[in-house]
Amino acid sequence: MSIHYVLILNRQGKTRLSRWYDKTYSRGAQNKSITEIHRLVSSRDSKHQSNFIEYQEKKLVYRRYAGLYFIMSIDINDSELAYLESLHFFVEILDVYFDNVCELDLVFNFYKLYAILDEVYLGGEIHEVSKSRILARLTELDRLE
Amino acid sequence: MKGLTQFIIDIRNSQDFEQEKKRINLEINNIRTKFSSNLSTYQRKKYICKLMYIYLSGYDDLVDLGVKESLSLISAKTIQEKSLGYLTLSIIFTSHSDTAHTGFKGTNTYFEELLGSVYSQLSHDLKIDNEIFNALALQFIANNFNLPGYQLPETSVVISKFLELANQVYSFAISPMSALLLKKKSLVCLKMLIQLYPNLLVVNDNWIPRLFSLVDYNNDLSIILNGLPVAELVVGMKPTQVKNLVASLTNNLEELVINANCDESYFYYGIPAPWVTIRLLQLLETCFLMDSSLVINLNPKDLKTLKQVISTSINQSTKSINALSNKNIQSSILFQSVGLAIFLNASSESILGAINALLHLLKSTDTNTRYLALDVLIKLISRSSDEKLTQSYNGLIFDRMGVAEHLLNDKDIGIKRKTLDLFYIITNDSNYQVIINKLLDYFPMLDYQLKSELSIKIAILAEKFAKDSTWYVNIMIRLLSIPGSSANSEFLNNEIWERIIQIIVNNDELHVKTCKLLMGKLIRSDQLSENLVKMSAFLIGEYGSLIKNEFPPQIQFQALYKIYVTAGLVSRSMILSTFIKFCNCYPDEDFIPNIIDLFEIEKDSIDIEIQSRANEYLNMFTMNSKGLLSNIIRPLPPFETKKNHLLSRIGTLNHIVGTDKSSFMVNAAKIQKKTTNGNGNGNGSLIDLGGPEADFENPFQEEKLVLSPNWYNGYHRMLHFDAGIFYESQLARITYKVDRIDDFKLLYKLQVINNSYKSTSNQLTSFKILELKSNANTVDPSYIMNLTKTPDQIILDKSSIEIEVKVRGVVDVEQSPVLSISFSCGGSFNQLNLKFPVNVLKTLTPTTLLVEEFKTRWLQINQLLPNNKGEFTIRPNTAYKYTASNIVRLVQRLRFSIVFSSSEDDPNKVLVLAAGILHTQTNNYGVLLSIKSVGTEGKHFEITAKCTGEGVAEIIAVAMGEIFQGKF
Do residue B946 and residue B845 come from a single domain? Predict the structure, then answer.
C-alpha cells in the first residue's frame, strides 16, 4: 500500500507539481491522467461531495487550498483520511517554509518544491511526520547550497 | 536564475494556448541548440530548469531531450547541481509504453536503461563519505525504482550492478553507524529493490530478522515508520513470517496508543504519531488477512493488549473535538481500528454496536463521514468469518435498509457506488429476492457510469442465490430488457447475456422454459433490447424445435424476421445463424425461400460479418446435396467454462474485502443440481464453478533452514531424555522438558535462560520466535504443532516457550521440526535455528509381556506382515561401551517395558528384549524390540524392531540406531 503519485494542479489545470512514484506510467499516460483528474476534481462540489474519488481502480484523495488542488492517488483499501490529513501536513510545511505560501511561490520555486516533497514523502511512502525535523532538514539543505 | 524567471513570466503572460505553445517551441529550439554547444554549469542548470518546466507543463513530444545533460549534472561536485540533476532525470526519464497505462511494455527497457546510465554515479555517491550525496543517491533510488508488476529477470545484463547497489543500500539500513537520515531513506529503497528482485531475500536469508528488528519499539519513530512498508512487503512474500512481526507491532501500538509514549516532535494536534499508528494498524490488518489462524495462535497477552488498543482508540475518537485536523486524523485511527476489531474475536454485541453506530453515521451531513462509514461497514461484514454472526449483521442492516437506500440518491457518485457494494454484500439466502428486486427497480435512475457495475452485481447475485430456475430466468430477462429500445446499450456487458446463455445451455430444464418466455416477448413487443434479441436469436435457433407445438416454426420465423430489420449489426448476424439452423431443422417449411432471399440480399451487405455469414450460409444451403447442413449444424455441446468471468468485473469491491473471501465465488450448484436429476446425461456438472484459486504463490517454499552449529547435542539428548539442556551458548541457555498430556499429545516446555546477565548484566532484547517450521508433509501431516506460549520480548532472567504437539501418525526422524529464534544482546544480533525431535518413540507406553508371549508375537508379526514388512534390523557401532544394565535403563527411559535382559555377568552376550505400544491419533501399534551384542567389545549391537504397522519397524529401528550411535 503506497502512494502512486502526488499532483498539485491549479484550477485551470496547470500542473504545479507532479511526482509519479509508480514508474510504469509512460509520459503520455501521465499527461492523459492529469487531464482527466483535473476534469474530475474541478467539477466536484466541495460541499456535497467527499474528498475521495475512485479512479482507474485506485482512489484519489484531494483537497483544495485556495486556487490549488493537492491530489494523491492511493490504493483502494488504503486509509483515505490519513492521506487527506497528510496532505494538510504537507501544506503546513509549505506554509512555514515559504512564510504564508501562495501559488506564485510554488510556480517560481518549482524545483525547490520537489525537494520539500521528498522530505515528506519518499518513494510513495509517508517518509517523515515530524514537522520540526523536516523544517530543520530543509534549513540545513538551504545552508549548504 | 533570471532567465528562468523571465521564461516563466512569459508563459504566464501568454494570452492563449497558441501563444504559450509558440513561446515554448521557441524555447525548445533554443535549448536544443544550447545543449549542442559548450555550456557553463550555470547555463546548463538554467536550461535544464527551463526544460523541466516545459515537461511539467505537459509537453510530451520531446523524446528524452535533456537526459544527457541531467546525467552530466549528476556528476557535478556541488550539491545544488547534483540534486538538480537527479531531480530532472527522475522527471524526464519515464517508461515508453504508449499504450496508456495498460501493459508493461517498455518497463523492462526502462529499468535496464535507467540503471545502465545512472549506475556508476549512484554507486559513487553511495560510497563517498558525504552524507548529502549519499542521501541524494538513496532518494533517487527510492523515487525511481518503483515498477509495480515488473521483476528484474535473473539474466538481466544489469543484475550484478543491481546486486551491488542493493548490498550497499542494505548496509546503510542495518549498520548501527549510519546516520538516521540515511537509515530511513535506505529503508524505502529496500522496499523498491526487494520488489524488483524478490530473490534478494532468498540469497540473503539473514536479512528478514534484521529488517524486522528495525520496527521494534526501541528504534527511532522515523525508522519504524519507514521500516513498516518493508516489513509489509516481506510478510506478503513470506506469509509464514507473520507471527514474528505481531509482537513488535503490538508493542509499538501499546506504547503509542495506550501509553502515549512518543517523542514530542511527533505529536500532531495532540495525538502521538498518528501516521505511525495507522501504518501499524494497517500492517496488523494485513497479517490477520493473510493468516486466518493468527488470532488463535496469538499470545494471550498480545491479544489483550490489542483489544485494549482498539477500545482506547474508539474511546478517544468520541472525545470532544475542536480542530478539523484533529478530527480527521482521529477518525482515521477509529476507522482503521474498527476494521481490525473483527479479527480479534470481539464479542458479537460489540460488533453489532459498531454496526449500529456506523449506520447512524450514514446520516451524517459530512460527506467524507458517510463515505467512510459505508467503507467500514462493508469491511466489517465481509470479514466476519462466523456465518451465524454475519447473518445477524446482515439482518440488522437489512432491517434498516431505508437508511442505506436514501444514499442511492446521494450527490456523490462514490457513495452511491459504495451503497450498491453494501447491498451486494448483505445479500443472502433469505433476502435476495427483495434486494435484487430493489436493485432492478433502482436501475433506470442510476448514473450511467454505475449501470454496468450494477448489472454485473445483479447477474452474479441472481446466479448465486437462485433456488428456482424460473425465477432466475425471469430476473435475467428483466435485467436484459432494461435498456428498452436503446440499441446503444454498452453499459450492459456482453458477458452478462453470454453467461446466462452458458447457464441455460448447460441446464436442459431451462431450454423449453426460456424459449417460451422469449417467444412470448418477441410476439408481444415490437421493440426488444439488443441483449434480449441476441439471447432469443441464439436460444431459439438452438432449442426452437422443442417448443414447436406451442409456437410453430412459422411463428418463430416470423417473430425473428420481423425484428431483423430493426436489430443491431451483431444481432443481425446472430439471426442469420438462427436462420441457417432453421434451414437444417425444417427444410420443408414454407418460409425457407424467404430465408434464402435474405441470404441473397445480405451477401452484398456493407458489414463484413453479415456479408460473409450470408455468403457462407447461402453456399452451404445450395450445396446441401449430401446432408452437408446436418453434418455442420449440430446441437451445441455444454460449455466447459467453469469460471464466471463476471466476477472479475465486479469493480473495486474485491480490493476492500481482502484476499480470502471464498463466499464471493459464485456457485451455480443449486440451479445445476436440478438438471442432473432431470436429464441424466451427465452434462449437469459443467457449470460447476471451482473453489477460489490459490491466491498465493509462495516462491520460497523450498527454502531450507541452515541449522545453528551445536544443534545436534540437544537434539540427540532429547531423543531419549525427557528433560535436559537443549542448547547452550555464552549468551543463552535453553532447557527443555517434554510432558505427555495424553497418549498422543506432547507438550515441549522450553526455558530460555539469560546466561549473559550474571557476567555482563545484559538483557536479551527483541527476543522473537521467527519460525516454528514443521517438516511433516503438508497433506495429512504426521503431527501438528501449536505454539501455546511465546517468550517475552525482553529477557532479564528467563522466559518460557511452550509448544504443543499432536501426533497424528508415525513420525519419521526426517520430519522433525525446526525452531528459529532471534534476539539481540549487548549490540550483537543472534539467530538460532534448532531442530528438535518429535520422535516416534515419544508417544510410547510400556506393556507387560512374558517371554513366551513375546516369542509368539515376534513370530505372529512375520505372518501378519510377510516379506519382512513388519521388521527391520540395524547394526549400530556405539561410541561408548554399553552393558546390559545400561541398555535396560535406556530402553526404560524410552518407556518400553523390559521383557528379558541377560545377566550382567556375561558382558559379551548382551540381550535385551523389550515391548511397548506406540500411540498416534489415528492408530496404535504394538512394538517389539530386540537388542543383542555383536562381538565382545560391547560397542557393536544388532537391534531388531518389529511392529504391527507396515513400515513402522524401520522408523523405530532407525531412531533406536540414532540414539545408540548418534551422528556427532
Answer: yes
